[in-house]
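Exam review. A common question shows you a sequence with its structure tokens and asks you to describe the fold in words. Practice with the pair below. Do the first one on your own.
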Amino acid sequence: MPEPANKGQMRTVISTEQIQKRVRELARQISADYRDRTLHVLAVLENSFIFTADLVRAMEIPVICQFIKPRYSSNKENPDGIMEIFFSQGPDIRNQHVLLVEGVVHSGVTTEFLMSDCRSRGAASVRLVTLADRQSARRVPLQPDYFGFLVDESVLIGYGLGSAEQTGRNLPYLATGG
């Protein structure tokens, strides 16, 4: 098992076993809800990549999987920023059932924007699944349709979560600290 460089300062928040069990439960629930339908999974990079891989492998329904990467850009005219979305390939989701997959939902602002964008593209339905839900940080009235764990930690690493500046995305559990 890989160890981050600052392991001594870290605290495990959710164990590997807890994550594996909950991902299987979520996959069963989602598979039951979409029985006899194809599900278009849109995974939000980077934080959802490991969660998405494990989740779709555990699903028992047909899945089309694509990746999206939201990014803020700002300029003098719009200092608050403009949301841009980069798709691995522009998804044709008209009349399709879409599941947006997030690693963690904090404020909900980006997630709400992405869900609204999917609806505007004509999706038949748009639902949200997140591994970690930090409701205490929410700035918009957004509630995931499926979630793995409620968390209060402002920074989590492991199981795909983290940032470009830190090691630990490859940990099989969620930790905080460092």
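Now try the second one, then compare your answer with the model answer below.
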Amino acid sequence: MGGLIDQAEGGKWRPEKVVDQARQAWQESMLRPIDELAHSLRRRDPADIARRAACELDGQSLHLTYWNETVLLPWPGLAAVRAADGKPCSTFDRALLLYYLDCADGAPLADRWIGFRELPNGAFYHQAYQGYSGNRLAQAFGLQPDAFDRAAQALGGKSVIDLGTSAFSFQPLPRIRLAAVLWPGDEEFAASGAVLFDAACSHYMTTDGLALLGGGLAGRLVRFAPAR
């Protein structure tokens, strides 16, 4: 993960390019592991997988919510499709879904927020992660906190008062909760931002997968940023 995510051009972060490159590299590297994951999951009890991952087993399919959309994974093929239109999910999304199902151990949400550096092996990549998550939010919304609030609400974010006046939680998967936080800037102080994790997230996803989910949340929010 680090080789691509550590990249910068001209001394300045190009977060959109870095995340896209990391996503593409991860997708390509996951083609064989995806098959291995699916094979491993097929050897398990689907009802137990559903219980641990907090999803539903309806007939021969696992049903779960992914970024506010219902996704179906028919058993035993585990080819992910969107419930709304039956279209297949991308290789990238299917990989994240299978990793989620494979990692899920049934641990409850911790209701405690941690930074990326507190995830397993997260300290080494914390600075890179901050560059394409929290820093990206600060650059897009730092002087326009109202626009950040509107973007978060448009994506279904829920206010998290304990983290600040501009802080919202999101649940891209049933047991993975993220928080996007903005501390607005002014003429004297620079804005800052962060994308945090519920402390139980590592029970449901690898650290590099969580990095991509956190970067993905920042990207989704930035799409709503006012034009400069």
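Model answer, second protein: DSSP finds nine helices and nine strands in the chain. Residues 109-222 form one domain. Full marks require stating both points clearly.
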